[in-house]
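Thread: "does anyone have the structure for this chain?"

Original post by V.I.:
We have the sequence but no experimental structure in hand. Need at least a predicted one for the grant figures.
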Amino acid sequence: MTEPIPAQKAPYQAQLEVGKKYAWCVCGRSAKQPFCDGSHKGTGIVPLVFTAEETKEVWLCGCKATKGQPFCDGTHSDL
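Reply from O.Q.:
Generated one for you, tokens below.
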């Protein structure tokens, strides 16, 4: 299995819509950060699929090291 790579050392601002499914990029290779574009194929890493519980602005992890996937927990500050 390949390890995730940081896409950037900062979070991505995103607007989520209630009830909509999202696939957050876990591998760090997607060109459509912070969301999956299928670039993980062959890495053994799969995206994290989640459904937004409410319509709101969020900060999604860009370093791929957060403990609160997919949301930023500030871990990028320690990298």
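V.I.: this helps a lot. The chain has no helices and four strands.
O.Q.: and Strands lie at 12-16, 21-24, 48-51, 56-60.
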